[in-house]
Design brief:
With 437 residues, the protein is of the alpha/beta class. Helices cover 39% and strands 22% of the residues. An 8-stranded mixed sheet has the order 3-5-2-1-8-12-13-11, sandwiched between helices.
């Protein structure tokens, strides 16, 4: 018998109906011994997430506004779930404690974390599993950084005492002052990954409302093919380029422990989903695994004669960006040219200032600026061993009348990134998908 850690997202635990589905999934496989839950999400369009309501309570409190009605919505929703599930849990004592902490001016992290806490209490009772609080186990330093090794040791020690347990996601504790601290993003996903590493899981299942990842954005490409298997490296490339996939922080603990991750659909548990593994699928005949991109970048092309022989030129570019607190995305270069690709959000309206600084400190012969650029990454391990991939990609874009403004390829030959006009973004992704799907 192996060990599986299963994390269920907000849509999977939104109400009694979804939680009943979740219970059937868990009970269908005795290897699913450790369960991580999010706070209840939206039940329908126009509904509110529990976490958002809790944040709203805190905001009202800070502005001396009544928050009782909002808090009552939260308590009513949890009480409705309790009645639907038929579990015997005294939720009122938890509600009273949370309300007391609100009056005392508790932190936003504390109040936001209570959605996961209350849901885990309910789910543990519903399953007949032990409840194990993440508080005191998942640890952060004073700067909010996860303390990986201390967390791993604490989780491993505590969970070894429990044959089956439910753990709330999203939060932990500041190791210095003992106060509740939440993850900045992907919190419950990260918690699941940390638990999987701590218990030495054979599989980390991430249950959500989609049947794994798709080769392209379904809002752009109609019925894109599913990705049945993907490597950590491919996923990282797609995630970095804007694909709505697991964040790198959520993958890391499982990746370093070489634990495969399976993305599954709570509403369609029979679907195979997507398996994320350390190694790429050598049996796959697909050249391209996925296509992803995002809009609103600016490309600054810098021209200078004999640039390649001028020592420290690139270092000075990076120093300027660092001084101005501007992140760069790519630095494709030639013998006498280099292009600096930055997101418009990172520029934050300081393009003229950046150009003036480049001109003053770099003394280039010429600079050109291309604004409103979209970046699209075509990703796949199969690209490195196949000839003609670039030709196929560029021909597809040319046939679609898409002008390429920038080309960049990593040394691993696992991706090709092209820059196109924002207005050509959807057209370009469709053309690339049709060429390789």
């Amino acid at each position: 018998m192996g060990i599986k850690v299963a994390k269920f997202g907000g849509s999977s635990v939104a109400d009694g109906i979804q939680l009943t589905k979740t219970k059937h999934i868990i009970q269908s496989d005795p290897d699913r011994r450790y369960i991580v839950v999010s706070a209840p999400g939206k039940r329908f369009d126009g509904d509110n997430k529990i976490t958002d309501l809790l944040y709203l309570c805190k905001t009202h409190m800070e502005h001396n506004l009544p928050y009782d009605q909002v808090f009552q919505v939260v308590t009513d929703r949890f009480m409705a779930v309790k009645l639907n599930l038929g579990v015997e849990v005294d939720l009122q004592e938890h509600f009273d404690k949370i309300k007391e902490q609100l009056k005392k001016g508790c932190s936003a992290d504390y109040i936001a974390s209570r959605g996961e806490y209350l849901n885990a209490v309910l789910v543990a009772a519903f399953l007949g599993y032990d409840f194990v609080d993440a508080e005191g186990l998942i640890q952060f330093d004073n700067k909010g950084r996860l303390m990986q090794e201390a967390t791993d040791e604490a989780l491993r020690t505590e969970l070894s005492k429990h044959e089956r347990a439910v753990i709330p996601g999203f939060y932990g504790t500041n190791a210095e002052d003992g106060k509740v601290r939440t993850f900045s993003r992907g919190g419950s996903d990260i918690t699941g990954s940390l638990v999987a590493r701590a218990v030495g899981a054979d599989m980390y299942e991430n249950w959500t409302d989609v049947s794994g990842f798709l080769m392209a954005d379904p809002r752009i490409v109609r019925d894109p093919k599913p990705i049945h298997k993907i490597s950590y490296k491919e996923l990282r490339e797609l995630s970095y380029m804007g694909a709505s996939v697991l964040h790198e922080d959520a993958i890391y603990p499982a990746r370093i422990a070489d634990i495969p991750i399976n993305i599954k659909n709570t509403n369609h548990p029979e679907d195979p989903g997507t398996i994320i593994t350390a190694e790429y699928d050598a049996t796959s005949t697909n050249v391209v695994t996925g296509i992803a991109g995002s809009k609103d970048f600016t490309v600054i092309a810098i021209y200078k004669n004999m640039m390649s022989s001028e020592r420290g030129f690139v270092r000075r570019i990076l120093a300027i960006l660092e001084d101005m607190d501007i992140n760069f995305e790519h630095l494709p270069s030639g013998i006498d040219t280099i292009s600096v690709v930055v997101s418009n959000s990172s520029l934050d309206g300081r393009l003229d200032e950046l150009l003036e600084t480049f001109d003053r400190q770099l003394n280039p012969d010429h600079m050109e600026t291309f604004e409103d650029i979209a970046l699209i990454a075509t990703v796949g391990h199969g690209m490195s061993s196949r000839s003609g991939v670039s030709a196929t990609l560029f021909t597809a874009l040319a046939d679609a009348n898409v002008n390429i403004r920038m080309i960049d390829q990593g040394s691993s030959e696992m991706n090709i990134i092209v820059g196109v006009k924002n207005s050509d973004f959807n057209k370009a992704i469709k053309a690339i998908y049709d060429a390789f799907a």
